[in-house]
Amino acid sequence: MDLALWIIAGLLAAVFLLAGANKLFVPRETLAKAPGGGWVNDFSPRFIKTLGALEILGALGLILPAALGIAPVLVPLAAVGLATIMVGAAIVTYRRHEVAHAILDLTYLALIVFLAVGRFGPEAFGS
Fold first, then answer.
1. Is residue 46 part of a domain?
2. DSSP code at position 98
3. Cellular component terms, GO, for this chain's entry (predicted)?
4. Sequence-ordered list of residues with C-beta below 8 angstroms from that of 80, at least 6 positions apart, any chain
C-alpha cells in the first residue's frame, strides 16, 4: 500500500507541478488558446497566477515532507488542499459544459482523496 501511495503522490506531484508552472509562467492569452483553456477568461490574471503558485506548493507538499522526514503530516494536508482545488476545477469545467475535462478533474480528485486517506491512516508511511 505504501508503494502505491508513493507512486500516486509522485504522479500527482508531476501533474500539479506542470499545471501550476503553466498557470504561473504562461501568459493568460496563451492559456486561453489551449484545448480546454477557455476557463481562464472567467478569472483574473492574479487569480490564475495564485492558483498556479498554490498548485506548485501542493505538488511539493505531496513529496518533500515525507521524503525528507520533516513533518510528514503535511503530505495529507497538501492532498486536502489540492482536493479542494480539484473540486473547484470540476465545478468550473462542468458549468462550462466541458464534460471530458470535468471527468479528468474528478479522476484527479479521486486519486488525491485516496492519497489523503492513505496518508492520514494509522500506517501512513509503512510504519
1. yes
2. -
3. membrane
4. 116
